[in-house]
Structures are given as C-alpha cells and as structure tokens.
Amino acid sequence: MFQIEAFGDKGIRVQLGKSISKETNERIRNFSWFLEKENIPGVMEWIPAYTTVSIYYDPYYISYELLKKRVASLKDNLSSVKLPPAQVIQLPVYYGGELGPDLSFVAKHHHLTEQEVIRIHTATDYLIYMMGFSPGFPYLGGMSEKIATPRLKEPRLNIPVGSVGIAGSQTGVYSMETPGGWQIIGKTPVKLYDPQRETPILLQAGNYVRFVQVTEKEFQEIEKQIEDGTYEVQTDLYQGE
Amino acid sequence: MVNDVIKVEKSGLSTSIQDLGRTGYQQYGVVVSGAMDVFALQVGNLLVGNPRNAAGIEAVIMGPKLNFLKNTVIAVCGADLSPTLDGKEIPMWTSIFVETGQSLSFGKPKNGAYTYVTVAGGIETPVVMGSRSTYVKAAIGGGEGRCLQKGDVLKAGKMETVQFKEKSLSPELIPSYETHPKIRVILGPDEKAFTASGIETFLSEKYKITTKTDRMGARLEGPKIEHISGADIISDSIFPGTIQVPANGQPIILLADRQTTGGYTRIANVISVDFAKVAQSLPGTELEFEAVTVEKAQQLYVKREKILRQLSIGAGVY
Fold it and tell me: B123, B140, B175 — which closes off a domain?
C-alpha cells in the first residue's frame, strides 16, 4: 500500500499499510530513511505513525503537486533498501515494591507469581511503533497476552517519571510525570525525555526496547551514575525473533 | 551580550514567552507550541528590528503589567487589549520607544484574544530543542518552563543602537479578527469516516467556541456531525489546525500546544492563513467552515509569506 493525500496546506500524508504490523513498520522505517536521504527542499520534518508517515513542509518552497510527485517517485525503491538492523535499547527496571505497586495485582489477575510476570515482561524485545502522547513516550508493540491487564478503575493523579506500566495489551514507560491509569509494575531510572540532555529524546520509532530486571542496589547505582552523567545506556542490534 | 530589560509587575492571565515553535521534534512526541498568531508575532518582531522568529511575550485576554528596566523599542501586535504606556493609550502594530521606568499595561479586550509584545533584541531565554517557546505541560522553554510570574526579570539580546524611527504596519495589512469569522478548511484526511450529511452539517452549520478552549485546542459546540461507524482511528499524526471529531460529534480544532498524535477522526484542517482567526476568537464566537482546495490555501499562504518577506527587507532584517 502506498497512498498519498493532502493533510491541510502544509502536510502530506503517506499511508503505507492498513493495520498495525511489523511489515508496515518496516516500510515506514524504509520510507523515512529515503526522506532523510532525499532532503527535499521545503520539507521540515516528518512523523512516522502506526500505518503512515506525515510530512510537514513549507509550501513557499514546494507546492503540494510537486511534493506529491517527489514522494510518489520514492515508492518503487521502498522494498529495494535493506536498512541496517534496528537498535535494541536496554532499560534497567526495578520491578515491584513501592516503585511497582501494581505488580502483585497483575500477578494475581493471571494466577502467576510476581517473578513469572517479570520473566514474561523481560522476555520480549518491544518494537517502538511510534512516539507521541507526551515527549519521548513510545507506543510499544509485542507484549504477551499472558500479562495483558485492564487499566486501573481510578487513574492515579501523579505517575512518577520512569514508571513502567501495562494497559490492556500495551506496555510503556511514562516519559513525564502525568496522571495515568496504567498498572505500574516497576520503574526505570533511565530518562526517556530530558530537555537538558544533548539528545533530549532517548528512543526513536523503528527501534526496540528491552526491559532488564535489576536489583534495588543496581537501580540506585544506575540512578547515581545518571545524576553524575556517567551512565551509558546499553544497546544491542536487533537479532529478530 | 544580554541585558535585563523587563520586570513583570503583574503576570496577566497566561502570559508566556513564544517564538515560532519547536519544529523538528514531532517524531519524538515533542509538541510544537509557538505563537498562537504567528503573523502578529512576526510583524511585531520586524517592527522592532528583530528576525521574524525572535521570541516575544504572548498575552491572552488579560494582559500583564511590564516595567522597562532600560530604554528600548517595543511593539504590540495582535489582539487589541487596550495597551497603555504609563496610563497613556499607545498605537498597535507600531514601534514605540520606551524609557527606563515606564510601564506597559493592558485594559479591556476590544477584539481578539492573543497579543504580542516584542522587544528590540528579542527575549533571551535558553533555547530548548531549537526554540524558546514555553510549553507548560512539559515544563520547557520560556526560561523556567512556565508562564510569567510577578517579579520575573526578562533579558533581551543586544541591539545596535540606531536612531529611533517610528514604523507602522500598513493599515490594509492589519487583520480585523472578525466576530463571525468564516474559517476555510481542507477536508480530510478522514472525511470518508463521515456520512455525506455529516460533512454537509459541518460545512453549513455554525459552531460556537466553548470556554473549554486554550493553547492546546478549541472545543466547539453545534449540530452533531455524523460518523459512518465510529470516531476512533489508529493513532496517527495531527497538525496545527487539524479538526478532530470524537464520538459526540462536536469538533475540536487543535492549536499550538496540541499533542503530536491523536486517535479521533479528522474531518478537515484549517488553512494556515486562517489559523489565527480561530486562535483570536473568544469563547462564544460562532465559526462557519468553508471547504477550499489545497492549491487555493497554498496561494494564500505564499501571498502572506511574500508580504512578510517584503517587510523583512524593508526592516533590513534577513
């Protein structure tokens, strides 16, 4: 699928698939790579989403008709490109206790032990389909249905930054302190969003997230290293399933 | 070199530092923000000799009281909130020489909602992700990531001292901020999610701006816009001026502080040159929508951009 349409007078929306899938995400990643490489005059930025890439441009430099042609010409090359493997960003997580107050509920809900929930949650590399909701927040796909749990009946007013949660069959990490109804099972000391950091946003659509269980002592050590600016986020190349 | 130039004596309603926004980070979920009326901010900057993208002070409905700590040049552009300097009425869309110790105040809102105080040299705050714009929810920009408060001292960039010469925007270029604006839109991208009569309703009825309106979006109220089968979509991008219609059939126009993605059907997008008409409309204002082509909208945008570029050349700012 490759469908181009206007999205207001400064946007163009390219639909690359009908439903959320790894294949569509792969096409979106390839298409974004081409956009980066083509460096089309007037194109200011683009936003990959689940099934689309929306391009934001300045019509003073390029009209809709011209940009549509330029974008359409990228279609045939889409499958030819073989991008280097995606990155897997490792997020250390302390599960349960005060930092993960809903871990016991999630375990009970599925008649599992807390450690089994942790084992299932850390066994998958989660694809970052898109970013949004708040700065640096990843929409992750691929969580096992074995630990899918409904949201809290009553949302909490303040979820601390770094809280790792489950909402239905989604999992995610709060990038900012916000109200929220996710089941909080743990916390990572790594900041997904830090406006003062050289790279304010840690994650990018198309890459993967892996949660790694750490002890309370390790959590505190990492937290201190982050404060001192000496912590380096561990990454891997994605090896496939 | 920067200088303390303004002390905030009264904060006003939600006065904040804004430039043209934080583009380039939407793919990471970072909200664009920026001035609600980019034309007014840009003209204001050019009148005081700044580049178009310099940061200014955005005031809404109830303006602040600002005390000047040094001689400088300012302009007030946008909504007419009855600006006065030491109690004396001052012209809008005009550069004004102000002296140390003088105070700028605002009174009754006469028309429009958002106005911009620009200062020679531009307001200097740390640049976060390419912009000085304040986005309160993520606590970024504007110095401390919040609206201005009493006692804040603002700095401006250094300007070459030149002989002050009053400049004004030609009256025919001053926007009128009508009370019953017609808002031109480009339908889509989800117009197929609506019934033909739903689209007809949207384009023929009046929609009133409710009080649930802020920098993030304007919630409208009017005849229900009919969907074919549901209002939810797979989360997708949204742009400034995107009009979402959730299941209740009441449209929401997304404005400067909107999130980057949304999950409701998008019936249309407000064209760029009409975005400020929405932003400048007070709650209670009735909007009517008219569909235009992309080509028409882009012609209007390019025309306005040419005007701004000519003004830049006239002002000796590039």
Answer: B175
